[in-house]
Amino acid sequence: MALTGLQIQKLLPKTNCKECGSNTCLAFAMKLAARKAEIAECPYASEEAVGVLGAAYEPPVKGIGLGPEAKLRLGEETVLYRHEKTFVHPTALAVNVDDDAPGDLVDRTLRSVKEYSLERVGEVLGVDLLAVTHKGGPTEAFVALATRAWKETGKPLVLRSASAEALGAAAGAVSGSRSVLASATPETVDALLPIAREHGHVLALTAPSLDELVALASKVREAGVTDALLHFTTGSLAEQIQTNSIARRAAIKESFKPLGFAFLRFVLSPDLLAGSVEAVTEICKYGGICVLPAFDAAQLAALMTLRLNLYTDPQKPIQVEPNVYPIGEPTADSPVFLTTNFSLTYFIVGGEIENAGLSAWLVVPECEGMSVLTAWAAGKFSGASVAAFCKQAELEEKVTRRQIVIPGYVSQISGELEENLPGWTVLVGPQEASDLESFIKARLS
Ligand code: SF4
């Protein structure tokens, strides 16, 4: 029977020393109960605790961190379907550059990977890693490009070579970057394991079949290595879905440790559309790192948007900070609008005001990321709470106009809001943000 967090805490030293990365032993116990940590992370755990909380309490998919401070997290997934709970770490997107590519293409790729950013519902997204592929030429060219890529982008790398010797040389050159070495085969694993350990990199494992990969992963686990990635070599999309699903199901449902690692996939098709389908499949079916063959801003924007949709925790609505936001370039006399701090609502309302060619102030109180009607029904968007927020945000110091437009869905708060904001008039706006433009033209122009 699974133990609760409190039962697990009784087995821990209870010194709250924080060395495991949690603030208290109880917080660490809760992570163990949720299988989001492993007992080996507590250096002071007793033999009894290790015995009780050993393999059975490890996360089904081992968590790993990449980059010098291990900030890029992968793994730690506990469910097969997002609606069961949530997915934890989004598929990391990497862009590839070959070591025999023309100089101007290399320059462009490094610059683009470093500078690319996309803002979606308040989150700024970028390329997570850069993959450097050794095409079989001189090792020096591969090592030189890996060194330059790390220096210029500061992103963790996926170093890819069929030669263990070339991988070893590049691994040493970017020591400290906590990158991925791709990939150790049954023939090269003995040579690559100590190199990965020495330079703090993560080893990706590959083999011609799933059975051989399981054997390889078991061998690596027996050698005491728990940070690894699985690099499947499937050909068709059907195989890709099947293999990823079998592996993740075995890890989560059967606690099958050799397949309990994040996945690494190189998109094979050079065709943009076919390659995008491969990447979409990987993002939708448990991808850990997905390496795109080249930089394409439009492709990245589409993939990142898809990824955001899948990996946004449905239990935690995306929120914007409560604030009084300027839309356009408002002056003290500009109109004042009200909405909630649910990101989607904020961006839609702000966008419609901008589309109407108006500069205005948008008052966004704390509503725990709920939409207008939900926040009102939960008592988080009342006349009194909105008025209290306006005072706390010193709205009257910012604006001279004493009129606020509220969403039509909460017309019932207008009286209470006027009572709590003496000197203000409340104008009930449209129910739908899409009607704001005509409302603005009719009532505020
Ligand atoms: Fe408690 Fe061990 Fe974590 Fe220290 S390292 S806080 S003793 S669980």
General description of the model:
The protein folds into three domains: 5-57, Electron transport complex subunit B, putative Fe-S cluster (3-methyladenine DNA Glycosylase II, Chain A, domain 3, Orthogonal Bundle), CATH 1.10.15.40; 64-310, TIM Barrel (Alpha-Beta Barrel), CATH 3.20.20; 323-444, Rossmann fold (3-Layer(aba) Sandwich). The protein contains 17 helices and 17 strands. The protein has helices at residues 5-11, 25-33, 47-53, 103-115, 139-153, 164-173, 189-199, 210-222, 237-254, 272-284, 297-311, 343-355, 372-377, 383-392, 395-398, 414-420, 436-444; strands spanning 64-66, 72-74, 92-98, 118-120, 123-125, 129-133, 157-160, 180-184, 202-206, 228-231, 262-266, 289-292, 323-327, 336-338, 360-364, 403-406, 425-428. Helix 5 links the parallel strand 6 (129-133) and strand 7. It is globular. Iron/sulfur cluster binds next to helix 2.
What fraction, in percent, of the residue positions are helical? 40-55%
User: What do the pLDDT scores average to?
Assistant: 93
- Please give the largest β-sheet: 8 strands, parallel, barrel
Shape: globular
CATH hierarchy: architecture of the largest domain: Alpha-Beta Barrel
Q: Ligands bound here?
A: iron/sulfur cluster
Q: What is the fourth-level CATH superfamily of the largest domain?
A: Dihydropteroate synthase-like
In order across it, which strands form the biggest sheet?
3-6-7-8-9-10-11-12
Q: Hey, roughly how much beta strand do the residues contain? A: 15-25%
The CATH class designation of the largest domain is: Alpha Beta
How many β strands by DSSP? 17
Radius of gyration: 26 Å
What is the CATH topology assignment of the largest domain?
Answer: TIM Barrel
- Number of domains in the coordinates? 3
